[in-house]
Amino acid sequence: MLYAELAETYERLEATTKRLEMISILAELFKDAKPEELEKVIYLTQGKIHPDWMGEPEIGIAEKMALEAIARATGLERSDVDAMMAEEGDIGRVAERALSEKKIRSLFYKPLTVEEVYETLDAIAKESGKGSAGRKIERFIGLLANATPREARYLARTVVGTLRLGVGDMTILDALALAYTGSTESRPKLERAYNLTSDLGYIARILAEKGLEAVSQVKVVVGKPIRMMLAQRLSTPEEIVDKLEGRCAAEYKLDGERFQIHKKGDWIQIFSRRLENITHMYPDAVEMTKRHVKAEEAIIEGEAVAIDPETGELQPFQVLMHRRRKYGIEEMMEKYPIAVYLFDCLYVDGEDLTLKPYLERRRRLEEIVEETDRFKLVKALRTSDPREMERFFEEAIAEGCEGLVVKSTSDESIYRAGARSWLWVKLKRSYQSKMVEPVDLVIVGAFYGRGKRAGTYGALLAAAYDHEADMFRTVCKVGSGFTDKDLAELPEKLKEYQIEHKHPRVDALLEADVWFEPAVVIEVIGDEITLSPTHTCAFNVIREGSGLAIRFPRFTGRWRTDKGPEDATRVKEIIDMYRAQLKAITK
Length: 587
Ligand code: ATP
Description:
Helix content is 39%, strand content 21%. By secondary structure, the protein is α+β, with helices and mostly antiparallel strands. The chain folds into four domains: 48-159, DNA ligase, ATP-dependent, N-terminal domain (DNA ligase i, domain 1, Orthogonal Bundle), CATH 1.10.3260.10; 169-216; 234-428, DNA ligase/mRNA capping enzyme (D-amino Acid Aminotransferase, Chain A, domain 1); 439-586, CATH 2.40.50.140. The strands form four sheets. Strands 12, 13, 14, 15, 16, 17, 18 and 21 form an eight-stranded mixed sheet that branches. Adenosine-5'-triphosphate binds at residues 230-231, 251-254, 258, 273, 303, 343, 378, 405, 426. Residues 230-231, 251-254, 258, 273, 303, 343, 378, 405, 426 line the site of adenosine-5'-triphosphate.
């Protein structure tokens, strides 16, 4: 396949404001690709060369380096290229303009293929060490020499990491379903395989080569992260015991970072809640797994928590965040030691346990883990007595936990990969107050500030995620809770996500001054959830002509960098929260 076809597709994707159109444009592209090319086409379209969880290096060409390459590839003066950048503010437009004004004609022009672009970008990413910047530039110049202006626009954005077509994983799955099965109705089957492997390329290839039936047979693979099972929420032990029909085990809910640990002999990989590969940040956890997991191959889950090196007491989440870094790992490891509390076991030596009930998974976990002070199973209590659960909750809080996660012990209590399921219900302290619990919302737009806030944003338009439709629907305008420093930094922080029109996956009635690609997630708390004609979350669900909105929303100060846009609070949860609130009032 020629790269020109990708560039043309990207241009069409940029122009559309409708998600359905986005899917059919992508489906056309996927149909045209050969099965062995499909994987590359998908990753390139997402602006990358591998799934993030592989932890492979990024392409890593800085804007300045790219400008240098553009100047050298076209024979234009560097100062002219810099001036174009100042005017356009977009490296893609600069590359496009520069190429159409170029002063050098290549003697051996040959059209770029997808294969060649992909291989070159991969080689660029892999360059490291002394002189690597120069070698990266040379390779990029090689690509530009054979690029048309339109291709250059997308190549330049890809190498600096600003392609941002906003094509999410679900959009890709819909487009694959449409391309290879004729309708998006088969998406759930693809989604299941995706939930088990998180590998779009892998699934696309099986689909294209062997068909939908083969996709349904996909199993977990050590090394490919399983999309994590998540919990629902309720506010009292009574409700939880009721919901789980008395068949439940309560576990401490630790306030740290979720780990999914994959082990194959001495090869250990750790994935975060967002499925980032965080192995290199936690050499201590790697070592503990090697030593204390008595299985050749295993996939287990737990929560890593910072502990006080003196007392061994649990520390809050913020302390653990010091460990989230690229450099100085050893030093931070000494300063902020961790303990890993394990709570699930998804695979052991050839056996996929995701469809086994909770009690069996827990038993397997006990069997393969040799417990130590710093690597052990999370404390659990099987009970159907709400008072006993309440005491266990108080005990958890006293020991520095956030609350409980109560898990179903029924025969159906499988590990529901990628789902927020009623098989797990969380009980947090803040839920017991009158206030609405905090939610995690995606920033999709902004409104300019006035007066004291002139020059920055006065409020952000925030949205919840509608998973069925793969859309972001607005729930509030949030303007309070930001410190002066937060406010001053907002435009800069959000700049890279700014787009010219409302994103095709955003559903909003309000006209924001600025639109963003849904990317950044913030934690927001409000006073209550109300009906609102101006917000699109759950529009027409509770009342015709109304959606749901959060009243008096405030930013809690927590940027949820551990969450991707699709991990934000879902529309369905907001509906549940609204209903729970009604119930509480009428009680
Ligand atoms: P939160 O914002 O409450 O952390 P979340 O959206 O990240 O929620 P949920 O599934 O709603 O995730 O809540 C469960 C989270 O709590 C898990 O992702 C995990 O990180 C953490 N956790 C702590 N202890 C446990 C436990 N015993 N079992 C399951 N998850 C636990």
